[in-house]
């Protein structure tokens, strides 16, 4: 059993007869009244996000998990195929298990969280940044900027990202997978 002091990002718990992963948390100690923890939980079975507040000292049932490196192979409808980089076993996961499937490129190495009790894959953790090529964007027009203006761009996975005006087709860019936003242009 874990308590509210053990809550951290990535912790997997059983809550309301479902398995959830903590994606955000905030310990709050108000001037009056008892302390509490505000959390944002993602269901590992449905993908739904839930906001919940736990009072200080609340006991939580922790799910024992381990992480393994897998290589993303290919999508097939709403199913995504991965291969273990150690023993070459393949597994398939539904779209709900992935945080940002639109940023997943074939061959990308990801971390899969697996419940140790029954070897069931729960979720996919993307690397913090991915490097992808811009396949389509309108040319930026000089002089139409007041401050850092952006334009839409389509990247090689088909996702749309807002990029600065100086980015052109064929440029490689670094994308933050948590927010799905442009970080910087990558020099080759």
**Low-pLDDT segments, ≥5 res:** none
Specify the CATH architecture of the largest domain. Answer: Roll
CATH topology of the largest domain: SH3 type barrels
Spatial strand sequence of the major β-sheet? 1-6-2-3-4-5
Strands, total number: 16
* Global structural class: mainly beta
When the domains are counted, the total is 3
**Distance between the first and last residues' Cα:** 49 Å
The level 1 CATH classification of the largest domain is Mainly Beta
Biggest sheet character:
6 strands, antiparallel
Helix count? 0
Helical fraction equals under 10%
Mean pLDDT: 85
Q: What is the CA-based Rg, rounded?
A: 20 Å
Write the H/E string, N to C. Answer: EEEEEEEEEEEEEEEE
Anisotropy-based shape: flat
Describe this structure as you would to a colleague:
It is a single chain. This protein has strands at 2-3, 12-15, 18-28, 36-43, 49-55, 59-62, 65-76, 79-84, 90-94, 109-115, 120-125, 129-137, 150-155, 160-164, 172-176, 181-186. It has a six-stranded antiparallel beta sheet, with no helix packed on it. It folds into three domains: 2-62, SH3 type barrels (Roll); 65-125, OB fold (Dihydrolipoamide Acetyltransferase, E2P); 130-186, OB fold (Dihydrolipoamide Acetyltransferase, E2P) (Beta Barrel), CATH 2.40.50. It contains no helices and 16 strands. The protein is mostly beta strands.
């Amino acid at each position: 059993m874990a308590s509210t002091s053990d809550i951290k990002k990535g912790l997997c718990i059983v809550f309301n007869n479902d398995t959830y992963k903590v994606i955000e948390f905030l310990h709050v100690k108000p001037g009056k009244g008892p302390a509490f923890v505000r959390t944002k939980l993602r269901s590992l079975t449905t993908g739904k996000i839930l906001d919940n507040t736990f009072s200080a000292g609340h006991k939580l049932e922790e799910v024992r998990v381990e992480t393994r490196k897998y290589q993303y192979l290919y999508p097939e409808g709403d199913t995504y195929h991965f291969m273990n980089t150690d023993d070459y076993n393949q597994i398939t996961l539904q779209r709900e298990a992935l945080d940002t499937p639109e940023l997943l490129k074939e061959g990308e190495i990801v971390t899969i969280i697996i419940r140790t009790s029954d070897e069931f894959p729960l979720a996919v953790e993307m690397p913090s940044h991915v490097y992808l090529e811009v396949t389509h964007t309108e040319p930026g027009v000089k002089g139409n900027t007041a401050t850092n203006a952006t334009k839409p761009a389509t990247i090689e996975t088909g996702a749309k990202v807002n990029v600065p005006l100086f980015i052109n087709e064929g440029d490689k860019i670094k994308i933050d997978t948590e927010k799905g936003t442009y970080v910087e242009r990558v020099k080759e």
